[in-house]
Description:
Blueprint: H1 6-19, H2 22-25, H3 38-43, E1 52-56, E2 59-63, H4 69-77, H5 96-121, H6 126-145
Amino acid sequence: YAPWCPACQKLQPEWEKFAEWGEDLEVNIAKVDVTEQPGLSGRFIITALPTIYHCKDGEFRRYQGARTKTDFINFISDQEWKSIEPVSSWFGPSSFLMSSMSALFQLSMWIRHCHSYLTEKTGMPVWGSYAVFALATLFSGLILGL
């Protein structure tokens, strides 16, 4: 979820009611703020918010059903999750591919942070920051090419 997302804000009360049932259903219920953990957006291929996953025995299934407390409870208690195909091992969050995607998302956030620092803290013009990153990209390419 993201705190600024209207759909996430709408889901919040139902999710909290469902979370109260976690102990009775013998499941852990959590939420992750993708603005605080951008690497997870890449690792789980988050393209829409809120996105809900069910994890059991290392298998991840994307929940796309109705979003009420009762529907969530039925999904777990009636084992409806068994009818959903698990995410392919290629696209599983612990795969090399998704770990790489996560690293790219984290790199993009670091670059954004550096750009903000250069323009806001040091007073460098925006075009100057772009020039620094362009030169860094060219230099990195030359080093990797050698």
